[in-house]
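Supplementary notes for students who missed Thursday's class. We covered one full example, reproduced here. Read the sequence, then the structure, then the short commentary at the end.
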Amino acid sequence: MFANKKHMKILVMLLSKILKIPYETLSQSKIQLEPLTNQNLTLGEKKTECDIAVSIKKDKIITDKIMLEVNIRSSAFQTIINRNHFGFCDMIANAFPESEDYSNLPNNLLVNFNNFSLNKRGLIFDEYMYRNIYGDVLTEKSRILNIDIEKCYQLWYNRDIKEENIDSYSKDLTLISAALSMDKKKDFMKCMNKVAMNDEIRIEMEGVLDNMCRDEKLVSRYYNREEEERRIQEGIYKEIATNTKKEMIIEMYNQNINLDIISTVSKLTSSEVEKIINDYLAQEKSNTK
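Structure (token representation):
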């Protein structure tokens, strides 16, 4: 729905609610979907096709980098936190080349649509920034927003979204988040029709929705919970193993050990070993500039 390059207006509408910027203002910026910068494009066998990475440009300068992610219910609380932290750090690290002026570092925002709660306060919108122990904000350039879509659905189902308690952007984001938990076309549109958007976007949304439906039922993208956790853990272990192996190869190279020996010890092909070394040398060269 929100990652369709042919219908970017729908994504811009969602971003306008998240960023609390009028759609007409935001649509004047250059907004584009980006390939995920995370080198590990799979966590186990789980494809990251449901994640969305977005950049926003003004005057040819990237002002915002945003990642949207859906997380299913999981008992592995720390695993979800670690995975999101890894993805968020990767997004910041790849924000722009090191040679750029750091004053131009874009705002980085990770938005998690969770169907479980990550806080004990019962918050629907749970936002995090870098703070000290006294609560003073160090920077607002890096933020993580967790949205409990299950609570959003309950508010919509019980008709308990009170406009006087929240601003219009938060109200609309609550409705959109509630719609993410629905599997019937009529319920989805009934909820989305309460979201403030122009008719052109609404018509486009209905067209995309028709392509997503099967017998008026939205095709579920959720994974089996136990299988999801297994894949997450497997992906983390693979990432650790890969990084450890790279460090070993670089250390052996710095000790002038023959590439054939490095290849044998690491159980990688010569071309794979050479690529790791060349990437390392390129990074070292960049750091010395």
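Commentary. The CA atoms of residues 79 and 172 lie 30 Å apart. The chain has two domains: 5-222, 230-288. If anything here is unclear, bring it to office hours.
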